[in-house]
Amino acid sequence: MGTEYAKPAPSHAIAPMLSPLLHPAGTEPRATRTARQEFLPFAPPLIGEEEINEVWITTGPKTKRFESEFAAYLGAPSALALNSCTAGLHTALVTLGVGPGDEVISTPLTFASSVGVIEHVRARPVLVDVQPDTLNIDPILIEAKVTPHTKAIIPVHFAGHPVDLDPIRETARRYGLSIVEDAAHALPARYKGRLIGSSDNPVAFSFYATKNLTTGEGGMLTASPEFLERARVVSLHGMSRDAWNRYAKGGTWYYEVLLPGFKYNMTDIQAAIGLWQLRKLARFEQRRREVVAAYNRAFSHEDALETPAERREVEHAWHLYVLRLRLEVLRIDRNRFIEELTSRNIGTSVHFIPIHLHPYYRDKYAFTPESFPIAYANYRRMVSLPLNLQLSDADVADVIDAVLDVVRRYRR
Ligand SMILES: *Cc1c(COP(=O)(O)O)cnc(C)c1O
User: Fold this and answer.
1) How do residues 91-117 score in pLDDT, each as one tens digit?
2) Residue 249 annotated among the catalytic residues of the structure
3) Which residues surround ligand 1 with Cβ inside 6 Å?
4) What is the domain-level CATH number for residue 391?
5) Helix (H, G, I), strand (E, B) or coil at 411
6) Taking the model in full, what pTM does it have?
7) Which ligand 1 atom is at minimum distance from the Cα of 207?
């Protein structure tokens, strides 16, 4: 704000190359050379007027604005726009100095990247089973897994239901651990009245195509300004100054590489989309709640179905609607249930295949399905129903009809 940013050269900057064509005899530019009036940028890309009118091409003013508007929306101390949530989690661990020999505690019921980033820094993931109602990491089980090597905890706000943070913060405080929240699903969500992302510890959001707010691919890391100042260096080649701005007038060619950093910056193309999505987020949130309310009304009295929990102290972001089947009441398993819905033209998914079942983790750490029995038992009976902003009321009614039809047909 108030800052001047490098504008890409307009497309007519190509003109000097073409001057014989553009300046027929008698219209040549004056021959007398005076000192250059305009600043000559070092390496401007050649992009048409149309693109320029929309956005600057790499990290620039739109990204800066998206960072500040996102931070303001959540009441976050500060925000760093990146090209994914995975980049945010990885950047946070590197910034914290987590590395070989260290242990990081997380949940088996998450997407691959929450745990993959622990492997990326050559630390050891230590998984802790989930609570039966929320399917979030169980704070009570964490303390038993803390060792002198434990450096951090990565809780995941599963489906958008905030993790029970207070006891996790208490454990972290007692043992000097950092908390890096995976908030890929938790936009916007509240824990005890406070928005997820408004705390000082690092919190990573995802703007992947399916998430509550999307930039196609993208992510945001919120944290204290001091932490993000270091994270920004880690996330962009380890360069000592705002590298995106060094070709601007008033920028300088000089920088220092302080560590072998990453190439994780968000582009203005993504940020331009994100700024509009952010303006629509409240409407998006309301629509998600409407769909969830319709599902809950339809399913909560079916003994074969368990609707998702929403504890009293939270506001759920409703990224996913994870329905659980009471298999003892049904004659079919979850996979067959999904096939039956597919044959009724209803697309569903499963969130998630637990980490400990995937070959890499299963083999490396000798996990069995029963290593995390609650995650495993719930995995076998969960199905995610459509919950997105393209759903019409008629679509929602179709999903409900199909689910109830399958349940009634295959009840024991
Ligand atoms: C989508 C997702 C991620 C990764 O987000 P990207 O932006 O694709 O890197 C991380 N954790 C969870 C729980 C997710 O669902």
Assistant:
1) 999 999 999 999 999 999 999 999 999
2) no
3) 84-86, 110-111, 113-114, 156, 182, 184-185, 206, 208, 219
4) 3.90.1150.10
5) strand
6) 0.87
7) 7
